[in-house]
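input
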Amino acid sequence: MNGSTGQTRHQDRVWSVAEHLDDVLSKIAPLDPIELQLLDAQGCVLVEDITVPVALPPFDNSSMDGYAVRAADTTAATQDAPVSLTVIGDIAAGPGELPDVGPGQAARIMTGAPVPPGADAVVPVEWTDGGAGEGPAAAMRAHSAAPQDAGGEVRVHRPAAAGAHIRTRGSDVTEGEPALAAGTVLGPSQIGLLAALGRGTVRVRPRPRVVVLSTGSELVQPGEALAPGQIHDSNSFQLTAAARAAGALAYRVGAVADDAETLRSTLEDQLIRADLLVTSGGVSVGAYDVVKETLTALSAEEGTVEFRKLAMQPGKPQGFGLIGPDRIPLLALPGNPVSSYVSFELFVRPALRTLMGLPDIQRPTLRARITDAIASSPRGRRQFLRGSHDADAGTVTPVGGAGSHLIKAMAHANALIVVPEEATEVTADSEVDVVLLG
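output
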């Protein structure tokens, strides 16, 4: 068999969706861990187990603005017969010397401030006269306006039980307790916990850097006027946004004209900042399919990209390979907007989440009752139709038609309806697989 005949037979092979995805994922490994500052680690996957180095909170502290007291001194307090206590000073949040609270005494205390020796309860200021000698106080007077309130007397109108309004040391977490497990995706709450534990940096798998570019001489930047035969470049915006939503750091490159040398130089320039490259357009069988032309002509040193036919609709033409000295993965997607987005969800998103080291790399799939019939579906191809999924009703309704250019329908869909290869139609009220988007 000569080389050209073998290449032709290989290109004639039709891949299933699963075969193509498995091949992509088999050549992608999670990124190496790095140490990052906390805010830079947001959205990244933790690669170390974090234990609590010191109890939280690290000391008994007040959960209210009020008065630190001995609970026994307030037992008889009522609205009609308040208990008077001598105020011996203020305790604000932060470092400072703590007074000893003796019998018949109270220390004015602020939320988060340490509970002083001798006190075993906090009386909220609303249960007192605030030192003003009148009825129940709504709040403390500012120290600058009424410095006398740090001394004198306070009348307590309600009793406080021992331990009332005190956050005890270790009531959140105790020293040595597990805090976060490796594999956790760091969101705002996890970042906050790490900061509370005193961690300034953390070891994570970084968010993958994704470079997205569209090809086509007909493409014009949004905001610019269209000449006859031109359209606005929507794919690069849609795919860049999708990559960011998947957790990546995505960079959009302006549309590249249908010129092989321009595309080649653009890709070479972008390799230095990419963990993954995504192109759209130029992968079919036309005379101006520049992505296919350029990437099939790579030398062995430059890498290898294979173009395939998949048994799916939309998204039949696909390309995948590894290019550049570091063999950066490249996924070449078709140019029709719906085709490129569906292809992203099925192939690029799992690849990105694999780079991140996440276990849940694919969108959730569930069964739902389809409200409208699907009159036809191509035999031998897995069809992905836009749908509106109603979780409460357990239904999905087709949105728009099957055309791969119907981008408005995509914008109004929250799911993909999956019609299997063997089905040529779907009756109303039957159950279908639904891939949830977002």
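quick obs: The chain has a mean pLDDT of 91.
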